[in-house]
Design brief:
There is one protein chain. This protein is an alpha+beta fold. It folds into two domains: about 120 residues, Orthogonal Bundle (Arc Repressor Mutant, subunit A); about 230 residues, Tumour Suppressor Smad4 (Sandwich), CATH 2.60.200. The strands form three sheets. Strands 6-5-15-14-11-12 form a six-stranded antiparallel β-sheet. Strands 8-7-9-10-13 form a five-stranded mixed β-sheet. The protein is elongated. The N terminus is likely disordered.
Length: about 400
């Protein structure tokens, strides 16, 4: 039973039951006498009382079992938790029981139910089979590259992003990496901003109008429907799947980069589309994309395996899909060009300048294409550019 070949073929269900029965992990216990449900500790890795050896133990064990972590590697409790959460949520053998979970107590936990085999093969209602297969095909056809993930963390090039001019000469280059400039919010402010992942109407929040000069407004769409908006005050961020409870440990991100999480898919009413969206995010968007905003404009670097296409004022191909190559820095928005075009718009009645950028995950998109039929899209803009476009012009 100790051989690697045997261990690697064990199913998640068997592994999980063995871990609960072992009693080795604090907080990982059965939740009912019949041993059909279990509690799993779910403390936020950014909490001051987070105990790595206890609160992250079960997630680290899963990473070791899946050969994603070995002794000597960098500790990464946020990623470990995300991996196990995705595995549990994707498996038909487990069901999260949210009404039994306790996430707002000092020792938070989630409750999962082990689904009996008979319940795992429930036939769809009449008329649903074709739609389910359609969604499955849609997911299978989504452009995705099964590339080997780089082991080393990718640091955005400060020279390329034009950030050197914004860095005080009294601070070393290493200490002034992306996400650590003096104008960035405190960890508590960032955490508060991340946790406020609320469904919103199309009106911008008051925070938008109090944002810094190069703050970004990021709007999330699922199936073309607006899900939420987030204002990112810091100069850079990484957008990735999960939730604040699943991975908001800022120490796991290069340069203490702020993390912005894809919102919950609860607003997707079509069950099959919701599952397709969740499955794609878990499988192919794990490392997400990194964004930087400064006086030069908005820049992006794709780190995830899933393909990402974009449209915007700097897109080289008009009317055709523009793909973001992996680990390549791309300028999405040119602030200087925008200001020039804005002046011509006001003084010479030229066309209004474009200031919004769209990222489409897993599916091709081109200028003029609707996002209505796309599973996952983001709209990104500098708050300053938005304000300049909306405010009345005075000569």
């Amino acid at each position: 039973m100790s051989s690697g070949s045997v261990r690697s073929t064990r199913k998640l269900k068997q592994w999980m039951i063995e871990q609960v029965d072992s009693g080795k992990y604090p907080g990982l216990v059965w939740d009912d006498p019949g041993r059909t449900m279990f509690r799993i500790p779910w403390k936020h890795a950014g909490k001051q009382d987070f105990r790595h050896d206890e609160d992250a133990a079960i997630f680290q064990a899963w990473a070791v079992f899946k050969k994603k972590y070995k002794k000597g590697d960098k500790t990464d409790p946020a990623t470990w938790k995300t991996r196990l959460r995705c595995a549990l949520n994707k498996s038909p053998e487990f069901q999260e029981i949210s009404e039994r979970s306790q996430l707002d107590i000092s020792e938070p936990y989630k409750v999962y139910r082990i689904v009996p085999p008979a319940e795992q093969n429930i036939k769809p209602l009449p008329g649903c089979k074709r739609r389910k297969q359609s969604i499955k095909n849609e997911l299978m056809n989504m452009s995705c590259e099964e590339e080997v993930e780089a082991e080393a963390s990718v640091i955005l090039d400060l020279c390329l992003l034009g950030l050197k001019s914004d860095i005080s000469s009294s601070v070393s280059l290493e200490d002034s990496g992306i996400g650590s400039n003096d104008s960035s919010p405190s960890p508590q402010e960032r955490l508060t901003d991340t946790v406020s992942n609320v469904l919103m109407e199309s009106q911008p929040t008051p925070a938008v109008f109090q944002a810094g000069p190069y703050a970004m407004l990021i709007t999330f769409y699922y199936g073309g429907q607006l899900v939420c908006r987030k204002t990112v005050q810091s100069s850079d961020c990484r957008i990735l799947p999960g939730s604040p409870s699943a991975g908001a440990d800022r120490n796991t991100v290069p340069g203490n980069m702020e993390q912005v999480f894809f919102p919950s898919t609860v607003s997707i009413t079509d069950v099959n589309k919701r599952q397709a969206t969740e499955q794609f995010m878990c499988k192919h968007l794990e490392k997400g994309v990194m964004l930087a905003s400064n006086s030069q404009g908005i820049f992006v670097q794709r780190s995830c395996q899933g393909r990402v296409f974009w449209t915007g004022p700097c897109a080289p191909l008009c009317g055709q899909p523009n793909k973001l190559e992996r680990d390549t820095h791309v300028q999405l928005f040119d602030n200087k060009q925008f200001l020039k075009d804005l002046d011509l718009y006001h003084t010479q009645s030229r066309p209004a300048p474009e200031y919004q950028v769209t990222l489409c995950f897993g599916e091709e998109i081109a200028t003029g294409h609707s996002v209505r039929d796309k599973l996952i899209t983001l709209q990104i803009e500098q708050v300053k550019a938005r304000q300049l476009m909306l405010q009345p012009f005075s000569s």
